[in-house]
Specification:
The two termini are 14 Å apart. Strand 1 (74-76) and strand 2 (79-81) form a beta hairpin. The longest helix is centred in the first third of the chain and has 35 residues, at 3-37. Helix 1 (3-37) runs antiparallel to helix 5. The chain has helices spanning 3-37, 58-64, 67-70, 87-94, 101-129; strands spanning 74-76, 79-81. By secondary structure, the chain is mainly α. Strands 1-2 form a two-stranded antiparallel sheet. It has one domain (3-124). The protein contains five helices and two strands; from the N terminus they run H-H-H-E-E-H-H.
């Protein structure tokens, strides 16, 4: 197998993972910040899904039922809220802001450049070793 193909596949996989992670973190962060801004601390003060400004699709439903987020935010009677005892943990995990799209694109571009350089540098190294 050509080492360039292997190296390129690894970097493409990492970039795909970065995109998926960014999307999940940004969507979850948006939901958490809406709940924090609305002071949704109980079912009475909780927010309905329409407050999030996103469509209720399977991706979002799985995200809200995921391990990390479902242990921090809860839904009762169709209203989402963050219990007061989870507030600090939510802030630690999702913070008050998220990475900007421009910064994310810059990271992906830099990582892609490193991948391209690696496709040319590592095969020469492999040839010297074998």
């Amino acid at each position: 197998m050509d080492p360039k193909f292997l190296i390129a596949a690894v970097f493409i996989g990492f970039i795909a993972g970065m995109i998926a992670m960014y999307t999940v973190k940004r969507t979850a962060g948006r939901i958490v910040r809406i709940l924090l801004d609305n002071e949704a601390e109980s079912p009475e003060t909780g927010c309905e899904f329409s407050c999030f400004g996103i469509e209720e699709k399977s991706f979002t439903s799985r995200l809200l039922k995921g391990k990390t987020l479902s242990s921090l935010i809860f839904c009762e009677e169709g209203r989402w809220f963050i219990p007061p005892q989870n507030r600090e943990k939510v802030l630690a995990v999702y913070g008050r802001s998220s990475m900007s799209v421009g910064m994310f694109v810059l990271c992906v571009v830099i990582f892609a450049i490193v991948g391209v350089i690696s496709c040319f540098a590592f095969p020469a190294l492999f040839e010297r070793l074998y």
